[in-house]
Amino acid sequence: MSSLSNPEIQDKVQDQPQDQTTDLQSQETSEATAELGDSLEDGIVFPPGDLYSDEPPMETEFHLRQMILLLQCLEAWWRGRQDFYACGNMTIYYSPRQLKSEHFRGPDFFVVLGTDRKPRKSWVVWEEGGQYPNLIIEILSDSTANTDRGLKKQIYQNIFRTPEYFWFDPSTQEFKGFQLLAGVYQDLQPDSRGWLWSQQLELYLGVYESKLRFFTPDGELILNPEEAALQEIQRAEQEKQRAEQEKQRAEQEKQRAEQAEQQAARLAAKLRELGIDPSQV
């Protein structure tokens, strides 16, 4: 889970008691919203759009691999589409004032629909027609879980207005999802498998072998390129084995036919020795 770009806000949230934390989160969210609105009204000139992402490294190797896995699987599943952008651990710039410490939030994984599928240095809202992510996934860690469940959730709900927000804790396997309804996040209800349905992606999300994965509407696991290649190798090996078995069966049938023919020839010869015409038998 990427940390907040504003360390002061993060420290406040983690150090405050629960009731004070909630008040602080509401205050920070309100201030961010008001600042953005005031900036637009005041005619503040937006900074250039070619801004580099300014995110710290992922907390652990697992966090990194989980983010890459989600990205690889979705891009492989949508390999024929050019109308989306998916990335991870990338800064989303949404404040018109280009200050490193102001209101920059870097989701661990996010998807934007209805945009060009092209490389970007970062996601700059004012350069993307005001578009925010349609879906965000945060990978929880001990140091950021409270922020992911609190302040970030409020920001994604009240400022980004991201339709779907999920989080996953690789240590405890905690997995939750929310859908924005009437401006407020409501819990998504898991099915009998513990999976959650994403209307935005039209895919299921669920935990498989301790990792968060995508599943098709029919319940098939969406593979990453390495898994797909391994599956093709296994399928080719199975086809080779089936062909070999078929060849062996054909050879056995040929041998049985030859043996039957030889036996018939011996029987005919024996009948002739006895003065019997085999064709009359």
From TrEMBL:
InterPro entries linked: Nuclease_put_TT1808, Restrct_endonuc-II-like, Uma2
Keyword terms: Endonuclease, Hydrolase, Nuclease
Chain intervals for the UniProt region annotation (Disordered): 1-48, 234-263
Putative restriction endonuclease domain location: 49-203
Single GO term (MF): endonuclease activity
Classification via CDD domains: DUF820-like
Compositionally biased tracts (Basic and acidic residues): 234-259
Keyword Hydrolase: yes
Gene3D superfamilies hit by this protein: tt1808, chain A
Keyword Aminoacyl-tRNA synthetase appears in the UniProt entry: no
Start-end of Low complexity biased regions: 15-27
Name the record gives this protein: Uma2 family endonuclease
Species: Leptolyngbya sp. NK1-12
